[in-house]
Amino acid sequence: MNQTTQMIHEDALPGHESELEPKPEWQPRYPGSGRLQDKVAVVTGADSGIGRAVAALFAREGADIAIVYLLEDEDAQETRRIVESEGRRAIVIRADVGSREACDGIVEETLHTFGRIDILINNAGEQHPDKDIADISEEQLRRTFQTNIFSMFFLVQAARPHLKPGAAIVNCTSVTMYKGSKELLDYSSTKGAITAFTRSLSENLVADGIRVNAVAPGPIWTPLNPCGGASKEKLEHFGESTPMGRPGQPNEVAPSFLFLACEDASYMSGQVLHPNGGVIVNG
Predict the structure, then answer these.
(1) What b/e readout covers 255-274, taking b as 16+ CB neighbours within 10 angstroms?
(2) Which of 42, 47, 54, 164 qualifies as a cystine partner to 66, CB 3.0-4.6 A?
């Protein structure tokens, strides 16, 4: 078992969606309207949670999907089945997005299969709760930044030569970037980096007709929290601190990604949407 795999399995990450109870709600809530017709989207972390919901909704709107995932083969194949049930094509790519070489391979395989990339959804992430900053090992710190932010640099660098005017990049940041999280110091720090990356990359690419935006979900019921080391007590009250008093579902977040990826958001770049249950973050 290599060092990366050891780190991942320390907290049972990334976790099987098929084993969660209750099951996360990924199903699109309305008929498609062709907003992504014949587009090609790369979606990282697409085997479960928000990534699966995004893949399903994008497929319903007419896109072919490259499903990028880390370890959960069964969940990835289920996402593939979902995409194909919408009448679209899908490929599954097992890869560690924290590796530059792997990100190069993701882009190469997508281009080989579909011939183009129109949308890049940087959604993959990991977290490891720690109550004391002294408990965060150097290995964990490096791994969290590698997965959550280095991956975005690597994938954009690999995809950039193939992104044409009209392309869209949407990154997944978090409410923790805005309000902080005392037990997720390294995770929330990466989310701050992602927001800065989004705004800066937008400035870098907007003149070339490529829009870059982000989504900052609040507490969403996905494998990330129950499999990422959250305590039983925290899970029992997960999402109750939001004004809506409940966690969100992946299919309540996916429409924000769709809006930013399609032409409905043609005059938006460098922005962040906040599906977070009513938390006011002023950012």
Answers:
(1) bbbbbbbbeebeeebbbbbb
(2) 42
Tell me, yes or no, if 187 is annotated catalytic: yes
Select which of 69, 178, 187, 267 is catalytic: 187
Task: Encode pLDDT of 36-92 as tens digits.
Answer: 999 999 999 999 999 999 999 999 999 999 999 999 999 999 999 999 999 999 999
Helices in the chain by DSSP H: which ranges?
3-10, 49-60, 73-85, 100-114, 138-145, 151-159, 176-179, 185-205, 224-227, 232-236, 250-261
Coil/strand/helix, residue 192: helix
Round to whole Å and give the CA distance between 43 and 134: 34
d(CA 87, CA 67): 15
The percentage of the chain sitting over the pLDDT mark of 90, rounded to a whole number, equals: 83
Q: What is the pTM of this model?
A: 0.91
CATH 3.40.50.720 fits 34-174+182-273, yes or no: yes
100-187-24 Cα angle (round to 5): 95
Could you write out the three-class secondary structure of 76-123? HHHHHHHHHHCCCCEEEEECCCCCHHHHHHHHHHHHHHHCCCCEEEEC
Retrieve residue 137's tokens.
Answer: 């090992």
Residues of the chain above pLDDT 70, percent: 87
Task: Determine phi and psi for 67, rounding to 5 degrees.
Answer: -90, 105
Coil, strand, or helix at residue 274? coil
Buried b (16+ CB within 10 A) or exposed e, 31-59: ebeebbeebbbbbbbbbbbbbbbbbbbbb
CB atoms within 10 A of CB 99: 17
Cα→Cα distances 215→2, 121, 218, 261, 269, Å: 32, 10, 10, 11, 12
